[in-house]
ATP-binding cassette, subfamily F, member 3
Amino acid sequence: MLIPKPREEPEHPKHNKRHQNTTKRVGLTRKARAGNRVGSGCPQEVARPNKAGLHKTGCKEGDSVLGRPPLMLTLRDVTKTFNARTLFGGANMTVNYAERVALVGPNGAGKSTLFSLILKEDEPDAGEVIRDEWTTLGYLPQESEPVGDETILDVATGKAGEMERLEKILREHEERGDVSAPEYNEAHSKHDALNDPQAEAKCKKILKGFGFKEEDFNKPAREYSGGWVMRAHLARLLVIEPDLLLLDEPTNHLDLLSLMWFRNYLKNYPGAILLISHDRDFMDELIETVYEIEESKLVQYQGNYSEYLKQKEENWDRAYQAWKNQQKEIEAMQEFIERFRSVASKASQAQSRERQLEKMEKLDRPRPLRKAFRFNFPQPQRSGQRVIALTDIHQAYGEKKIYQGLDLEIEKGERTVLVGPNGAGKSTLIKIMAGEVAFQKGERRFGTNVKMGYFSQHRADTLEPELTILEELKRCAPELREDDARSILGSFLFKREDVYKKCKVLSGGEKSRLNLVKFLVDPPNLLLMDEPTTHLDIWAIEGLILALQKFEGTLVFISHDVHFIRSLATKVLHINAGTVTPYSGGYDYYLEKTGAEENARAAVIAQ
Ligand SMILES: Nc1ncnc2c1ncn2[C@@H]1O[C@H](COP(=O)(O)OP(=O)(O)OP(=O)(O)O)[C@@H](O)[C@H]1O
Ligand SMILES: [Mg+2]
């Protein structure tokens, strides 16, 4: 392994400050950090403005006088366009030390694209992205890269991939003698963090928080689903503890317990966090500033997610009231003009009103606030009363026994949710029903007229990257006429020329929506759905809830979205250590009866 040279102290005074600060900041509470922040004005020695009137750190002239800290990240007047569609124009944003900022907006709005601009993977069409070059950055992408033979612990400690990458950067800089560059400093500090003797212990603790067990650590990562690999990547980021964490929908694949653990962990995180999320509860606990991409604009709101929603409603009410008042005023002026235009004594007054009306800056009628959209898909053929029966099922993965003698029946019209801790066998059970995993003993029987469809948890590679949306839909429903295909795509918000987009450029949520269309275009009467809301925005989730509430078939599903479960489940199956306990009521009934919520909270607090 490469042992990097001890770092020379770079000349940039900010660098020294950052390192003192990092060590100081670790382990501090939010309050203490906030205290730290107040005093950390832009240091005088950095207060040398460059040509644009900005310091190297991005703070404006005078900030140090006001005692404001230097900025980690500034977006100034940034515009990004894809094929004549402007994702956002004139966007401004700042992120400061220890700030918790959320970036929200509907699927396809451009959130992940904005991250790629911050990461300098892509360029804006106009404007600038200014990053404090001494800020170390950690990034969790929306979708995880495929993994190979490395173990879970290797992924999390960076022994696979990351260490090698960092060492390459260090070596190249050292060979060039360029060891005071910010990139060298960044690689060095990340390398230090992963090389720390405590790193492995810290990593294991974090992995456990994310639901891994001791016996998972040395297993190859490729045996785990994308969601679990994502957790291992996330663990690595938390060990490195970069100054600025960029997280693109980190909660998508977390179950309830790890979600609570992660939220608590981030609350005490010493650096700044910029988070893309559709999870309201998660953001409410953590976030202090929200930026929203809406109608190609980036708008800032102070407060957490609920406060943002409130302000948005209030802004809309105000804009609507202002527009209505102006309409009344316009009507009154027009009436006056009509009435007195030909009355000699008042004609000049009428003319002057006319000019006034022409000059008046007209307000636009505010567009209605976004609502859940309506999914249109046909109802399936009816099935018999008993839909599926499992009898005396025995299932094991190698040595690991999951079910021993499981009996289960699902009846027509039920909407059953499977709940239980990680690794309890929820996905396995749904796969047994779907015929996707073999069981060693027992019987699976369908009732009369049952047509089953399985919507799997991992759908990343179910779309052909080079096909367009329309071609992809036709591939799975060749009978469908073009205008019917377009109409169903339209009801899932793929309008007009959108249908000619290639699958490879779709955003996470757009991919999820297309998978739903493919699944529901000719719906089976038994839907088996594993995490159907992953990547969907709140409006799409709401739309899916409305559609599934009207669905006349039978639904068995797994979800980590409490609102989704609550709105749909009529029956709960709790799965733990191979035992399935049914609760014939909704989610709240199950929580009340078992005290599950309190137990989960207690478990998180005890860690
Ligand atoms: N290379 C590209 N060419 C054309 N369009 C693209 C390209 N990359 C992305 N897009 C489009 O830009 C839009 C924004 O994509 P982006 O991934 O930033 O959305 P997002 O806000 O992250 O959405 P989600 O919530 O679904 O993750 C999408 O409509 C996507 O299809
Ligand atoms: Mg995205």
Residues 82-83, 87, 105, 107-113, 142, 501, 505-510, 535, 537 surround adenosine-5'-triphosphate (ligand 1) (CB under 6 Å). Residues 305-340 form the longest helix (36 residues).
